[in-house]
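SAMPLE LOG
Freezer: B-3
Tube label: C17
Construct: single chain, 345 aa
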Amino acid sequence: MKRTAGAAPAPPVATRELTAVSADGSRIHVELHGPEDAPAVVLSHGWTCSTHFWSAQIRDLAADHRVIAYDQRGHGRTPAVAKGAHSTRALADDLEAVLATALEPGRKAVLAGHSMGGMTLMAAAGRPKFAEHAAAVLLCSTGSSQLVAESLVLPMRQGRARTRMTRAILGSRAPLGPVTPLSKRILRYGTMGPGAAPEKVAECARIVHACPRSTRVAWAHVLAELDLDAGVRELSVPTAVVAGSADRLTPIVHARALVATLPECVGLVELAGMGHMTPVEAPEAVTAQIRTLVDAYVRKETVSDAREAAGPRTSTMPAPLPRADGDGGTPRPKALGENNMEEVV
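STRUCTURE (predicted):
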């Protein structure tokens, strides 16, 4: 297919599509990409987005990963729900349904969430299906509470007036309308870094403007009252955090708060000059973090399972023992300050 120079390529075509049924009967659209027996990755998108938001990651990872992406309720190809059916509990219910539908019992995966998708992982942290399937987590451009109060969308001094006005803007019922040069400028200001490439701005605009107004408004109200600090403390699997230094929607203060609270944080990556839409603005960097987590926590699990299935070791060489002092045996997990994932891009 011929496309205009500079335009984003068409979204990847799924190998298979499924429908997960959530606790309240909501039907969730799920896409599977890549080899069935490859290490698994689950992608959870953010507010006003869809599976298309992860297109760059899917194209790269599907070559050697089983990639599972789904549309949050009311977004993309997942039907809208009744008024009142929007909550962090529903986000967690939906994720559990996706994991149960797309993964075999006990199969581990890296779970990556952007913005509201990251909040979904926090909300589900204490759930049985999350514990069964999550080997590691990537929290990308997200926060756990105080979203409106910390937002930098309005260039005003922090306080009640800014919080009130920000809440009104983000929860506005005004239609977004068609994608125009003006709407792209507004979107770039609010959600992307100042140096975002025009084609990336256009890609995000197409995705965001496709979100139904009722869905956008309903979830805006949920995010305005968000408090998932307890969920962060329950997120006990290895977790990496990625954030853009120019993010106005979830400023870098949120990422640093997550790092300080997470029980097993394995790194913070601050993407210099990037805004809120980091998987689109810096796709290689985000994909690299997912691959790093897979290599560290999913491939290792697969090798261990294979060895267990093969039976006792026949070698007379004893297996290495875990260590905590740095001398011999299996390497200990690195602390945040020494982890090679902690960098500024």
